Amino acid sequence: MQSTAIHIHRHGDPDVLEGVQVDVPPPAAGEIRIRQSAIGLNFADIYQRKGAHGPHAPTPFPITLGAQGAGVVEALGTGVTGWRVGQSVAYFHPGAYQAVRNVPATRVLALPSGISEEQAGANLLRGLTAEYLLRRLYVVQPGDAVLVHAAAGGMGVLLSQWARALGATVIGTVGSAAKADVALAHGCHHVIDYRREDFVARTLALTGGEGVAVVYDAVGKDVFVPSLACLRQLGMAINYGTASGDVEGLDLQLLHAKSLSVCRPTLRSFIATPADLQRSAAAFFAAVDSGQLRLEVGSRYALADVQQAHRDLEGRATTGAPVLVP
């Protein structure tokens, strides 16, 4: 059978994204064929489109971007058990920008009844990322103060809600009054408009001069080094995205006085095994089921409109978790 897919034949701006028709063979042994109803749109896709260095394995052109989606099981390969045709599922596996595709069964997740395919397609990568950021890389404790940059974005709203549910005081930064309202409605106790205020001074004021336990930074170049001044002793700064550019040439002496830690992690390391993926997803789904997290879908784009979707996401014109709809 054939399916619509989005390929790139070179790295570059959004205009390198090209719609094509590709052959989809029957699922091989150990694979599941999924007809997608929602495909996640993430900044990681932009990094890969541009050829920016990151966790992406070297891949020959043409490249199909994306790593997460959701839909229904359409066929099962030999040896695949525990799944049924028509079942709602989500997955994390490279090559998501394609309407129908085969995915290793070990990377597929059964969706609980309370989570729709669209919610999962838009939020799975972000939810799994929030899980390891809050529960494993730095274990948020009741009473901690945390700083979340880009608090109105798709990752920011999940981090802020979940950190608050874990007992933290959540300080978020945003770039407009409208985004401040979004952040306040999604877990932040305090919101700083970085275009109008010095976020370092304001963060220190809000914490009585002590600073926060951890900084969650998806912005990178523009905020990472100043964020170190927001940390308390033994604090940790986590740069998990680089929307404003890579952090380069960090002076380690900036960490010395307060024995600070910095980290540049990637989700793939934390869900590398099937067991890790299942455990992380179970924790994420449980947080949704308990009401700690509200999964929302931001802007919706037809798969054919992927170029505009990338322009909007790259230009920070989206709020929440955008999604591509095949």
From TrEMBL:
Q: What is the primary gene name for this protein?
A: qor-1
From what superkingdom does this record's organism come? Bacteria
User: Is 4Fe-4S tagged as a keyword?
Assistant: no
Give the lineage.
Answer: Bacteria, Pseudomonadati, Pseudomonadota, Betaproteobacteria, Burkholderiales
Which residues are in coiled coils? none
Q: Tell me the ranges covered by the Enoyl reductase (ER) domain, including all copies.
A: 12-324
Q: Which UniProt keywords apply?
A: NADP, Oxidoreductase
Xref: SUPFAM superfamilies: GroES-like (SSF50129), NAD(P)-binding Rossmann-fold domains (SSF51735)
Q: Which residues are the signal sequence here?
A: none
Keyword Oxidoreductase included in the entry's annotation: yes
Pfam families, alphabetized: ADH_N (PF08240), ADH_zinc_N (PF00107)
Which SMART domains does this UniProt record tie to the protein?
PKS_ER
**Name of the protein:** Quinone oxidoreductase
